[in-house]
Amino acid sequence: MSELEDIRQRKLQELQAQMQQSNAEAQQNQLEKQQIEAYVRQHMSKEAVERFGNIKIAFPEKAEKALLIMATALQRGQIKHIDDKILKTLLEKLQSKTEFKIRG
Length: 104
Description:
With 104 residues, the protein is an all-alpha fold. The protein has 4 helices and no strands.
């Protein structure tokens, strides 16, 4: 029975180590997202920040995609400031890619 307990104990320790690593990676990803969002928000108008906040609450996945696109565009110098009009256009383009129309 001792050998079986040793195996169980090792397996438990391995699982705990994996959980800790997974938690650390999740925290790192969350920190990176917060940094990217802070960077993008610096370049957004007040109206765009409000709209982005609403989208983030209602559609978190869409907000994340938009955030990454905006961050990339800012880093590449394609845009310098994000106003509400630019954000609306981006969101419409994201919507059109994910929407399916069924005609009967």
